[in-house]
Write a structure and sequence with these properties.
This protein has an eight-stranded mixed beta sheet with strand order 4-3-5-2-6-7-1-8, sandwiched between helices. It has a seven-stranded mixed beta sheet with strand order 10-9-19-16-13-15-14, sandwiched between helices. The radius of gyration is 36 Å and the shape is globular. A hairpin with a 2-residue loop joins strand 25 and strand 26. Helix content is about 50%, strand content about 10%. The protein is an alpha/beta fold and about 950 residues long.
Length: about 950
């Protein structure tokens, strides 16, 4: 109480309150109807003190408050603030939030789709837009005081992550950087790098969730807690461990035995049967109904499949599930009709509008990248308003969109990563379950994992207990980046700048540990060298001779083995059906009749198909009938030595390898025909080592060496062998150090050399062609520039130009399409063929310069799969016609159209004057920017 304080203490407290009221933080705190958390206050105070900040905190913890304080500071100081996000949907959402607070006059938006009030003091934008502004030297950068990078952990993204590092490196020194990240295990390392490239940066890490999270497993009708806590101990629920053991015993054959071999009592068996009957994976409608009855809605169920999300909604509808009353249904319909008023009525059916609306009215929806953006945004709005209570979503929903729920459900802990089905990582688990628990609404959040056969509760507990994942740089210098850097800084300074990237920072740090190991190895080698010292002579030289002898003998032995295998294979290739042979070794050793030679018929003629359906594509693999009536296909392993026919036999045309009677009759004839043969014993050839002059020379030198007569020779040799092994390991470590040091600069050197050869760069100068490339951003930037330079698209009508540009952006979700893509006719077909030819030339040039697409630098092959859809849409066809032939979801179609429009805009700005590309690119944009593609979520 203030009355208990002395006058001096009251004076000090009053001074502190006055000082706090004088800060910019005090009025900012009054904007919120809740108290700020300690980590938010710490970050805001650091910002006001002029420091940059890195805030790493769990999803839903309110770290964007720090970004909003940067906006507040900028307005207070009369400076600008750019608020960057990784995806357009987040930018749109943040724009609407800031407009509500500060008014439309003070807030702008810049994304690939929208440009609103771009000169406002606060501008929300995607990170790529800011990168492009930095390279272009935009006047909008004047007066910039703060940049907020929301979801900065995106720099780990394999395809787009480099953009974040480009921005961080190239921002003017006067700009204060606010980096907001999910909880990552190496936040301090990332903060150290920011401190290096941006100056004084304070790292604030908060591990505490604002709403406690409870983990559960739903099996059958019962929901189990994942953990049991007693005092300070936290253990996996023993009931779950018991269930897992029961599942394993059932899968393992269900032997009616306990450990130690004692038989189970009938009562025990009956109890286990009843328990097993209670274990099953509940269906999707059953899960939602269960969550509803326990008051755990709204919930997001993560299903790692778009089709699975749509199927889940249909299953709930067919089950009769209803989560909304009549009043809520009416409100849903009212909002949906308002938000979709811009969509033409004729397109509603093809978009699945009516089925989607029925689900929304019942409080159920899907959310995934294949949906129309309008539909996704409506789902998000209704979910936040509490009018949609069950959403089935893919993992993309976890990336930043503000859709907190009371509960999160994970159907499985395995997902398809593009190449194989893989377990989700602790970081992915944390990101997904981080949606559970709404701050200011829920007392606690709930993460529910559905029981699946083979589930390991201990492994699940490991996922739930690991809260963080490491941030790894994906930075690589692209062609566009190279010409922009050289244009601004020249070659030498560009190289130095790239060396400051987080990628190189991490590589250099990893080298420190390897260098320490090299140092330890060198100390160990010194000890080994001392132990192998011989008083008679140079034992290191003697050990080298012994090693050379051993290596030479090993080499000759391998050559001999390879030669014998080649001779055996050549002999097998000469076999023909009807040959009687003696199989020298293996399970089927003895007499055998060749039924099929098992030799490929060659590339042109195709392979001959044997009695067992095999095509013999693995080398000579004869199919034989043994004297014991077995039909088997043998391999090279059964013939360590060459085999020659003993006799010839006729194989009856009526012979059927699957008929026991046929095999018995032919085997009997085989024994009668050749049973008297005694196989010749194969004589082992003289070893090549016996006559090798190099081996003889080494043996002579060894015998003459002084150390050969040492009594402790073998003792010294053991130390020498350890010395050699350690030296080999040390050299490998040194090669790793060389490989990691200056890696980014070496890649830049290769990119620079290729661009110089093509005439884009000349010393420290960027040529006219280079200036065109500098304005083209995308994965196939160099291909686009080459097509412009060679006039591939000159004279193409707008729709055909759109078809060609689509090949620069489109990537099929799977690459196993059996049919070639449908292409427009006319000049577009020839232009697409020319694009592929130019790509082939560039690919060969990249290989020559050791630039590979796997490193994230090279040009992938253009994908023609969207050309027909882009052509028809730009040519004015209706959505129904285009989608029916494109065979893709509406959301994917809209996304690819917007990317085509973005590149068309780049070409319109970069194409040389006097041609047709600029004019037709703009006309193509007008043709594509209509209907569902033209919709904007900015209201």
């Amino acid at each position: 109480m203030t009355e208990d304080l002395s006058p001096a203490e009251r004076y000090v407290a009053a001074r502190e309150r006055a000082a706090e009221q004088a800060t910019a933080l005090a009025p900012f705190r009054d904007l919120y109807d809740f108290a700020l958390d300690p980590f938010q206050i710490e970050a805001c105070q650091a910002l006001e003190a002029g420091k940059g900040v890195l805030v790493a905190a769990p999803t839903g913890s309110g770290k964007t408050i720090v970004g909003e304080f940067a906006v507040h500071l900028a307005l207070t100081q009369g400076r600008k603030c750019f608020y960057t996000t990784p995806i357009k949907a987040l930018s749109n959402q943040k724009f609407n939030d800031l407009v509500k607070r500060y008014g439309a006059a003070k807030v702008g938006l810049l994304t690939g789709d929208n440009s609103v009030n771009s000169e406002a003091p606060i501008v929300v934008m995607t990170t790529e837009v800011l990168r492009n502004m930095l390279y272009a030297g935009s006047k909008s950068l004047l007066g910039l005081g703060y940049v907020v990078m929301d979801e900065v952990h995106y720099l780990s993204d394999r395809f787009r992550g480099a953009v974040w590092e480009e921005v961080i490196i190239h921002l003017p020194e006067s700009v204060t950087l606010v980096s907001l990240s999910a909880t990552v295990s190496n936040a301090e390392e990332f903060g150290d790098w920011l401190d290096t490239v941006r100056g004084d940066t304070q790292v604030i890490v908060s591990e505490e969730r604002p709403v406690p999270l409870w983990q559960h497993v739903l099996a059958g009708r019962r929901m189990y807690d994942l953990f049991e806590e007693s005092g300070d101990k936290r253990e996996v629920n023993p009931d779950l461990m018991r269930m897992a053991r029961m599942e394993n015993s059932r899968v393992g054959g269900g032997r009616d035995r306990r450990r130690g071999g004692r038989p189970q009592r009938e009562a025990d068996r009956e109890r286990e049967r009843r328990q097993r009957a209670r274990i099953w994976t509940p269906g999707r409608p059953e899960v939602i109904d269960r969550l509803d009855s326990e008051g755990l809605l709204p919930a997001i169920t993560f299903i790692f499949s778009r089709a699975g999300c749509e199927a889940a909604v249909q299953q709930c509808l067919y089950s009769g599930l209803r989560l909304n009353d009549n009043a809520a249904r009416g409100r849903v319909r009212e909002i949906v009709e308002e938000r979709t008023a811009d969509i033409p009525d004729k397109d509603l059916h093809v978009l699945g509008y009516f089925e989607w609306l029925e689900g929304l009215e019942r409080g159920i929806a899907a959310h995934h990248a294949g949906m129309l953006p309008t539909f996704k945004e409506v789902v998000e709005e209704l979910f936040v308003r509490g009018l949609v209570k069950a959403v089935f979503a893919t993992e993309t929903l976890a990336l930043g969109i503000n859709m907190p729920a009371r509960s999160v459900v994970l159907e499985k802990l395995v997902k398809w990563n593009g190449e194989q089905h893989a377990d989700i990582t602790p970081g992915e688990f944390t990101q997904l379950t981080g949606r559970a628990g709404r701050r200011g609404i829920d007392i606690e959040g709930h993460a529910v994992v559905l029981w699946q056969r083979g589930m390991d509760p201990a492994a699940l507990a490991g996922l739930a207990g690991a809260r963080t994942y490491p941030l790894r740089s994906s930075f690589k210098p692209s062609y566009n980046m190279a010409v922009n850097l050289v244009a601004q800084f020249g070659r030498h300074r560009s190289r130095e700048l790239l060396e400051t990237s987080f990628a190189q920072f991490q590589a250099d740090r990893s080298v420190v540990g390897i260098s320490r190991q090299v140092q330890k190895n060198e100390e160990g080698m010194a000890g080994y060298r001392a132990s192998m010292t011989c008083h008679l002579g140079d034992f290191e030289e003697y050990a080298r001779l012994r090693r050379e002898l051993k290596d030479r003998e090993t080499e000759l032995a391998k050559q001999g083995a390879n030669q014998r295998r080649a001779q055996a294979a050549a002999a097998l290739e000469k076999l023909r059906p009807g040959d009687v042979i003696h199989v020298p070794t293996g399970k089927y050793a003895g007499l055998a009749l060749v039924l099929d030679a098992g030799v490929s018929g060659g590339r042109g003629s195709g392979a001959r198909r044997g009695y067992d359906g095999s095509t013999g594509q693995e080398g000579p693999r004869p199919l034989v009938l043994t004297a014991q009536r077995q039909v088997k296909r043998l391999g090279p392993i059964d013939f360590p030595v060459p085999v020659e026919p003993l006799e010839r036999m006729r194989i009856p045309k009526s012979f059927n390898a699957r008929s026991p009677q046929s095999r018995r009759d032919l085997a009997s004839a085989l024994r009668s025909k050749a049973g008297h043969y005694v196989p010749e014993r194969h004589r082992r050839q003289r070893s090549a080592a016996a006559d090798d002059p190099e081996i003889e020379r080494l043996r002579t030198e060894i015998r003459r060496h002084p150390c050969h007569g040492c009594d402790e020779r073998e003792d010294h040799a053991r130390w020498a062998e350890r010395y050699t092994r350690l030296r080999r390991d040390t050299r490998q470590l040194e090669r790793r150090i060389e490989g990691r040091t200056n890696t980014i600069a070496r890649t830049f050197d290769r990119v620079y050399a290729l661009l110089s050869e093509l005439g884009y760069l000349s010393g420290d100068e960027v040529t006219d062609d280079g200036r065109v490339l500098a304005r083209l951003y995308g994965e196939l930037d160099l291909l686009a520039s080459e097509c412009l330079r060679e006039g591939v698209w000159e004279g193409l009508p707008p729709a055909e130009l759109a078809a060609c540009v689509s090949a620069l952006v489109f990537e099929a979700r799977s690459n196993d399409d059996a049919l070639p893509p449908k292409l427009p006719g006319g000049r577009a077909r020839a232009a697409l063929g020319e694009m592929v030819r130019i790509w082939g030339r560039l690919d060969a040039l990249e290989e020559e310069h050791r630039i590979t697409a796997t490193e994230g630098v090279g040009q992938r092959e253009p994908d023609l799969g969207f050309a027909w859809a882009a052509f028809r849409w730009a040519d004015g066809y209706g959505l129904d016609d285009v989608l029916r032939e494109a065979d893709m979801p509406a959301g994917d179609f809209v996304r690819w159209c917007k990317q085509v429009i973005d590149v068309l805009g780049q070409l319109a700005a970069a194409a040389p004057d006097g041609g047709t590309v600029t004019r037709n690119a703009r006309r193509a944009i007008e043709g594509m920017l209509r209907g569902v593609v033209a919709y904007t979520s900015v209201r």
